[in-house]
Protein: 3-beta hydroxysteroid dehydrogenase/isomerase domain-containing protein
Amino acid sequence: MLDQISTGPGLVATVAITVTLLVVAYLVRLNQLLLSTPDEIKKAAPQRWTEDLLRDTYRRLEADPITTRSYAARIPPKLDRRYIVTGGSGLVGGFIVLQLLERGQPPESIRIVDFRAPDRADMLQGAAAQVGFVKTDISSAEATGRAFAKPWHPSVARLPLTVFHTAAVIVPSDRSRLVSGFCDAVNVRGTRNVLDAARRTGADVLVSTTSASISIRPVELWVPPWRLWSKMSPRHYWQVQDDEDFFKPLRRHEEFYANYPASKALAERIVCSANSERLRTGCIRPANGVYGNPTDNTVGGALAMAVLPTWTSHIVQNFVHGINVAIAHFDFEAVLASSGSASLPQAGRPFVITDPNPPIRYRDMYHLVQTLSVSPSRLLPLQPIIMVLLSYPIEWYSLALVRFPVLRTVLPELTGEVKHLKPGIFSICTHLVASDDAARQPVRSGGLGHTGVLTTLEGMTQEVVEWNREHSNARKGERKSYKTSVSLADDIAKAAAVIESVAGS
Structure:
């Protein structure tokens, strides 16, 4: 009996130490897997961006910058039509407006319908500054209807109407249905409102911007222990972004990595199912992430930080410049503008769009920013498993404030970048190779005949050229503040909350 008592605590300690060591070994090995790059992906991204390549590209683009005029020959020819661009103040919508003007559309034939007025530097001068703007919350059917029904200038009032629907909110990591209402209100209900308003005002072409993130499956963050030392990566650790999912039944909400792609998938089905002879429709899926202006989350977000915390340097992904995405909308419009096009294979379906080059590694983009930007920055490497472990309590905390509103009286809301560190974010921080094969097919073969005008190297370098120009007189380390799509979503959510509280009082 005495021997059993004396050995009891020792046995407990031994078991505790053994379990702790096993857990640590599991986490270390899982971290190794999350830092790995499968051989298939290495082959897909063969090129590295050397310092010489970056500086040569920078000198070329600094001397001969990319403007709408420099690629005007690639923009499909002008059509005698009117244009409503929802989200026209944003990244893709802004480039659509600029390209419309470049190909000869008069400013009075274009209307921006957006939550905010344009504030991009390239839209505050010349003909772009003359384009009409109607501040609108597309989640409101009444506001959307008024924006579409506003009278046009007599010189264009009788022209056919094309709607480019690019407006959306991006909430990158929320995945619980408890907080899906915001994405659903803007991305789903807003799309229905835009469709209804387009029909009522006689539009006959509508091309909507959705997202290639629709096809992404949630990554397997917790690998079964017996698979840890196999050669297999975590399930869905690398994926191909294509449009095959569109031709299958819509997946359940839990089979999307977050509320955002789930809402965009439903919106895409709404747009494509609306295709008819009276209103021909289709969707463009930009590969994530979209970049092309200091307001973007991809390059602009990196340029804006003196310290770049990251666990994704090894990650391989395709990116797409807003210029290439905008041109794809015109390629689609050219197909749908002719009567009888509703029965063509292109109508009522999505097409994935990406830059015309293989995917790159995030470290290439970081190397570009550190090599070329006048704003100094340094990388802060993070271990992915630490970030995964942190993401769960952050998500639980955020959802607790939603489930139990009384907690908000004593606990603060999370703000800044930390609020987005939730498990859903890791599914878009994995290896993603986009396939735009369908869009590149000739029109006669059912494609859009699309080819991008900018490679990722050119597009990202051009963005740094523009950043450096805007910061040429800034004090060392000083950075201008830009409104990104994610921060804009935060502003819209706050505005909606204020309106709701007033309405309920």
